[in-house]
Design a protein that fits this description.
single chain; 276 residues; alpha/beta; Udp-n-acetylmuramoylalanyl-d-glutamate--2,6- Diaminopimelate Ligase, Chain: A, domain 1; 3 domains; 5-stranded mixed sheet; two-stranded antiparallel sheet; 8 helices; 11 strands; extended
Length: 276
């Protein structure tokens, strides 16, 4: 830009020109355009939230996640994590863009046979997923057989399979990974969009094997790592992700709860007691 301006102050009768602009000024203009294009390209990449270089290897090296246990795919730990999703429906592959780290408790596969489960795994091949985080839970038919098939699949396809402790919630992991692969503002937007995508996938998926209400509560339970129950207005249990179908009893210590978000709803909370 400086050269373009200074060129107007120079006098050189023999210097080349075109359309009353000197050769040096044309070169300066080209460099200015290329520079602006480069800056805009980087800005657009940041706005789109394109992933920074964050790999499975780096995730496993984090001090916060020492409890993670790599079961398969040690040779593929340098795979770049492009995103992160919870597997909400059996045919999850069609909802992926590619390169995601997948989280599952295998609950969505609870009613399918081992053979059907393996076919769902094969569908992930074309999406080039970065890895799978597995958190085991009960109430899954042929559980051990399905876990063995998952290990076999990951070993054959060289996909990192990581065992995740039950005490770590899915959304704790999602929030952490997003803040590693995206800028802070983009991570926040992606977080909200992912929440919406999860429920859209669950609500409109064709392959839901039980009631949608039950599946939604199970997804919520996985998110917050706590049982979730929906009650009728008379406080009888409608559906629950846990095993307790008893009526909701309002205790004397019931108090108003004000969440840290803007909302038009009112909330109440009370402490619960658990029997040992």
């Amino acid at each position: 830009m400086i050269r373009f301006v200074l060129e107007n102050l120079r006098y050189n009768a023999v210097r080349g020109s075109m359309m009353e602009i000197s050769t040096s000024q044309w070169i300066s203009l080209i460099m200015i355009i290329l520079s602006i294009g480069s800056v805009c390209r980087r800005k657009i990449r940041n706005l789109k939230g394109e992933s920074m270089e964050y790999t499975i290897e780096k995730l496993l090296a984090e001090k916060q996640w020492k409890q993670l246990n790599l079961l398969e795919g040690k040779e593929s730990c340098k795979r770049k994590i492009e995103g992160i999703r919870i597997i909400e429906v059996p045919e999850m592959a069609r909802y992926l863009t590619g390169g995601e780290l997948l989280l599952t408790s295998l609950y969505v596969y609870r009613d399918c046979s081992a053979e059907e489960f393996y076919q769902y795994l094969i569908a992930f091949e074309e999406k080039h997923i970065s890895g799978i985080l597995l958190k085991e839970r009960e109430q899954i038919s042929e559980k051990e057989k399905k876990i063995k098939l998952l290990k076999t699949y990951c070993e054959s396809k060289k996909i990192p399979l990581i065992e995740m402790p039950k005490k770590i919630s899915f959304w704790e992991m999602i929030s952490f990974v997003m803040n590693r692969i995206f800028t802070k503002d983009v991570a926040r937007l992606r977080y909200f969009k992912l929440t919406q995508d999860n429920f859209n996938t669950l609500s409109f998926g064709r392959d839901i094997t039980s009631s949608k209400t039950q599946d939604i509560l199970e997804l919520l339970s996985d998110m917050v790592d706590n049982p979730v129950t929906l009650y009728y207005s008379n406080l009888n249990c409608y559906v629950t992700s846990g095993g307790d179908h008893s009526r909701l009893e309002l205790r004397e210590d019931l108090e108003e709860y004000i969440p840290s978000v803007i909302t038009k709803f009112s909330y109440m909370r009370q402490r619960t007691t658990t029997s040992s």
